[in-house]
Structures are given as structure tokens and as C-alpha cells.
């Protein structure tokens, strides 16, 4: 899109989070909050995006995709001041500019598209998103004139008693003609109470100049949630979690109890896989078709599970690849392991992958059978069709030949395994 640019505001300190982590890096379903905003912006077209950063700029920047341009706001003197920092970078540009807040991650593609479409169709100077909420406290209220035109946004702290009763709020997402925006910004005065320059004051300025102001009301007020506190963050987490689970169910994944199933963003699960209750599946995990996961399973980063695999209660898996047809049904841990197909991992098997300094790999070849209560001290290799007797401790650097039977503490090879 040649006639569009976007600016995401994310320089604020996020004081109300009471955290050392910059607000926009707090994660929701495993993904930094700001990534949701970047994703929704991308969904309306491909154009350049600028992110205004200030507080812990370097740290936030490291977590952004490379193509995102970063603009520094040295002093966080308000949302209008933040946009002004982008003026230089956009001085040769004359199209439309989308403005979003990095702390409002729940906005849907549909709502943002509606905003852009209406703005263009009406050739408005400014179009912004509003929504009607039960509890408008903390948000800017939309003040309309008798004909219904939005003529001002009044911040909560400045609202009169009557204005406080208004339940239509400013979501903090705007589309401006760039000239109108940068000219309007110059007129904004420092707010007397908060000593900040409010972007929202621009609406009244444009209204007085008889510029065309349009709004789009979003149906689901939850989408407009701005994350200011840890409590807001938990609400956002639940909202996005629901969206993720719903998408899996639409794709043919069976989720027995969505209320006790936690699946991060960027997880893939094949059809007819059953996820049983109290299961946590973290970002980046891949699960094939027709698997049974849980109850009480914990699948962590870099885990890849094939088809027809069962991971039962109290199993934890991290940085591990498990091929098709494997079973690990009761309280076991696999970390940094590579497991071939049709392996049976008995109850209570543990991979000791960390020697206190480094983590090492455990390789279990196909059709191996690991007896209950075994400890495999990595690095270690268990050959194809090898059998580890119950309660064995297989010490590090062992390379168990295929087809052998091994047992004891420490485990010793006692025979060849009869072919099944
Ligand atoms: C803002 C709006 C309010 C709206 C609400 C929606 C203003 C003045 N108010 O209020 O009308 O209802 O969002 O959630 O805009 N930021 C900067 N630099 C600054 C200050 C803020 O980049 O100097 C960024 C923050 O990091 C944040 C965003 O701007 O991502 C919004 O700032 P915040 O202080 O959270 O505004 P609200 O009080 O929530
Ligand atoms: Ca906010």
C-alpha cells in the first residue's frame, strides 16, 4: 500500500504494570504484546511501520522484527509528543497514517480493516475507533455534537462529572491524513493536570477547523482493551487464549476442556489429536495428527511430536523430537532428546540432560523400549529395538547397541533382545 504508513506508540514506561519488563514486551500466550499489534497492522496491507520507543529502547528493539523502523522519543511527554518524533521520518510522505498503541493487543483484523475502509471511502481527515463499555474509567470519552459528529476526546482526568458518564470511549487507534496530523499536532498544548501533550486533543482542533472526522464503533468492546495493569494483562491472556483454542477446534483438533487447556501462539496441532484437560503447550510446539496429549502434560519450546503419539499424565517434554507411534503415558521427562518411531517410554522415565553446566542430547532409536523408572544420563544413545530394564541408570556417553537388553545401576548389557 503506497498511501499508508503506520506508527505504533510504545515509548511509555508502563508505570502501572509495576514491573521492570517494558510493558510491550510482557507476553500474552507466549508472544510479546507488541507482536499482536504488528500482526494486525500487517493484515491490512504491506507498508512501512514505525514504532516509537523510549523506555528501555534497546531491549524492546532487540525483540522487534528487523523491517520495523524504530523512532526514539527521549522524554515521554505524551502521545502527541510521541507522534511528533516521527514527523522527520515521514516528511516526504503525504498519504494516510495509521496510529495504534503498543499496549492494545486485542484489536481484530476486521476492526482495523473497517477503520481504513471508512477513512478512505469518506475521505476523512481523521477516522478513529470507538467502543461502548460498561466501565469507561481511565479511557478518553468521545464527545459528540448534536448531529453526532465526534468533536472531541476528553481524557478521564479532565472529564467533567457529566462527561464521566459517557460510555463511548476512544480505543486509541486512528487513521489520519498525514498533513492534517502533523499540522494539528503543532496546535496541541501541554495538558495542565498531567503536563503531557495529548494526541487526543487533536480531535477538537480538527473539529474547530471543520475538518472531516469519522468514527468506527467496534462491536466487541473487549478488543479495545488497553493493557495498563497486570490485571488487564490477565484479561488479555484469557481473551487470546480463547481465540487460539477456538481456531484449533475449527481446524479439527479435539480440546476436551478449553477452560483448563493452555496453548500459546505459534503452535501447530494436526487433526483428530485429542488434548485432555490441564495441559500446557508452549510457543513453537508442533504436534501431528491423531495424538493424545494429557491430562496434565507440559510441552515446552522446540518440541516436535509426530503422528499417533501418546503423551499422558505428568509428562514434560522440551527441545525434543518424538517420531510417529511413540508412547510415554505416565510421569516422565524428556529434554534435548531425539526419539525414533514406535518407542515405548515407561512410567517414570527421566532423561538427565543437564550436568550442572551444559545440556546434552539423548538419542533413542526406533522401536526401543525404555523400562519404567529408568534414568538416561545424557549424552547417551539407545539403539534400535534395544530394551532398558525397569529402574536402570544408563550412564553418560554410553552407546547401547541395537537389539541389546540392558539393565541395572549403572546399567550393563546382559543379553541380546529376542526379536518380537
Ligand atoms: C490513551 C488515550 C485514551 C484512550 C486509551 C486507550 C491519550 C492521551 N489517551 O490513554 O484516550 O482511551 O489510550 O487505551 O492518548 N506513549 C508513548 N509516549 C508517551 C506516552 C505514551 O509512546 O510519551 C505510548 C504508551 O507506551 C502506550 C500508548 O502511547 O503504548 C498510550 O499511552 P498510555 O499512557 O497508556 O495512554 P492511556 O492513558 O491508556
Ligand atoms: Ca494505555
Question: Which structural traits does this protein have?
Answer:
420 residues; alpha/beta; Spore Coat Polysaccharide Biosynthesis Protein SpsA, Chain A; UDP N-Acetylglucosamine Acyltransferase, domain 1; 2 domains; 13-stranded mixed β-sheet; elongated; binds uridine-diphosphate-N-acetylglucosamine; binds calcium ion
Explain this structure to me?
The protein is α/β, with parallel strands linked by helices. Helices cover 18% and strands 32% of the residues. The chain folds into two domains: 4-224, Alpha-Beta Complex (Spore Coat Polysaccharide Biosynthesis Protein SpsA, Chain A), CATH 3.90.550; 230-416, Hexapeptide repeat proteins (UDP N-Acetylglucosamine Acyltransferase, domain 1, 3 Solenoid). It contains eight helices and 35 strands. The strands form six sheets. Strands 12, 13, 15, 16, 18, 19, 21, 23, 25, 28, 31, 34 and 35 form a 13-stranded mixed sheet that branches. The structure holds uridine-diphosphate-N-acetylglucosamine and calcium ion. Uridine-diphosphate-N-acetylglucosamine binds at residues 9-12, 52, 73, 76-79, 81-82, 101-104, 139-140, 153, 155, 169-172, 198-200, 226, 228.
Short description:
The chain has 420 residues and is of the alpha/beta class.
Please give the radius of gyration in angstroms.
28 Å
Distance between the termini: 63 Å
Helix percentage:
10-25%
Shape field:
elongated
Spell out the CATH superfamily of the largest domain: Spore Coat Polysaccharide Biosynthesis Protein SpsA, Chain A
Q: Tell me, rounded to a whole number, the average pLDDT.
A: 96
Q: Report on the biggest sheet.
A: 13 strands, mixed
- The CATH architecture category of the largest domain equals Alpha-Beta Complex
What small molecules does this complex bind? uridine-diphosphate-N-acetylglucosamine, calcium ion
Give the low-confidence spans.
none
CATH class category name of the largest domain:
Alpha Beta
Report the total helices: 8
How many domains? The number is 2
CATH topology of the largest domain: Spore Coat Polysaccharide Biosynthesis Protein SpsA, Chain A
Work out the strand percent.
25-35%
Structural class, by secondary structure, is alpha/beta
Number of strands: 35
Amino acid at each position: 500500500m503506497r498511501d499508508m504508513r503506520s506508527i505504533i506508540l510504545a515509548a511509555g514506561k508502563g508505570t502501572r504494570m509495576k514491573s521492570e519488563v517494558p510493558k510491550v514486551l510482557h507476553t500474552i500466550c507466549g508472544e510479546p504484546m507488541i507482536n499482536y499489534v504488528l500482526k494486525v497492522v500487517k493484515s491490512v496491507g504491506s507498508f512501512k511501520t514505525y514504532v516509537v520507543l523510549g523506555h528501555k529502547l534497546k531491549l524492546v528493539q532487540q525483540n522487534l522484527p528487523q523491517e520495523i523502523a524504530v523512532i526514539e522519543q527521549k522524554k515521554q511527554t505524551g502521545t502527541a509528543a510521541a507522534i511528533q518524533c516521527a514527523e522527520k521520518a515521514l516528511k516526504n510522505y503525504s498519504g494516510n497514517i495509521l496510529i495504534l498503541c503498543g499496549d492494545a493487543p486485542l484489536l481484530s483484523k476486521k476492526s482495523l480493516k473497517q477503520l481504513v475502509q471508512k477513512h478512505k471511502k469518506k475521505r476523512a481527515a481523521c477516522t478513529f475507533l470507538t467502543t461502548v463499555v460498561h466501565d469507561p474509567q481511565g479511557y478518553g470519552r468521545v464527545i459528540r455534537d448534536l448531529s453526532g459528529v465526534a468533536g472531541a476526546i476528553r481524557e478521564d482526568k479532565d472529564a467533567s462529572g457529566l462527561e464521566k458518564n459517557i460510555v463511548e470511549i476512544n480505543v486509541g487507534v486512528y487513521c489520519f491524513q498525514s498533513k492534517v496530523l502533523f499540522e494539528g499536532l503543532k496546535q496541541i498544548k501541554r495538558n495542565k493536570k498531567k503536563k503531557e501533550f495529548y494526541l487526543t486533543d487533536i480531535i477538537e482542533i480538527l473539529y474547530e477547523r471543520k475538518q472531516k472526522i469519522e468514527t468506527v464503533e467496534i462491536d466487541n468492546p473487549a478488543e479495545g482493551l488497553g493493557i495498563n495493569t497486570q490485571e488487564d494483562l490477565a484479561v488479555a491472556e484469557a481473551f487470546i487464549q480463547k481465540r487460539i483454542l477456538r481456531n484449533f477446534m475449527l481446524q479439527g483438533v479435539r480440546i476436551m476442556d478449553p477452560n483448563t487447556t493452555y496453548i500459546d501462539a505459534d503452535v501447530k496441532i494436526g487433526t483428530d489429536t485429542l488434548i485432555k484437560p490441564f495441559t500446557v503447550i508452549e510457543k513453537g510446539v508442533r504436534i501431528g495428527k491423531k495424538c493424545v496429549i494429557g491430562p496434565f502434560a507440559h510441552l515446552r519450546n522446540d518440541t516436535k511430536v509426530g503422528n499417533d503419539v501418546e503423551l499422558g499424565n505428568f509428562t514434560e517434554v522440551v527441545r525434543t523430537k518424538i517420531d510417529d507411534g511413540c508412547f510415554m503415558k505416565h510421569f516422565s521427562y524428556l529434554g534435548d532428546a531425539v526419539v525414533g518411531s514406535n518407542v515405548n517410554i515407561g512410567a517414570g522415565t527421566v532423561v538427565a540432560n543437564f550436568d550442572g553446566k551444559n545440556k546434552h542430547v539423548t538419542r533413542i532409536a526406533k522401536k526401543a523400549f525404555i523400562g519404567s523408572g529408568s534414568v538416561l544420563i545424557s549424552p547417551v544413545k539407545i539403539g534400535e529395538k534395544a530394551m532398558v530394564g525397569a529402574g536402570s541408570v544408563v550412564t553418560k556417553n554410553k552407546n547401547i547397541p541395537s537389539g541389546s537388553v540392558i539393565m541395572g545401576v549403572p546399567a550393563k548389557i546382559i543379553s541380546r533382545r529376542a526379536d518380537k
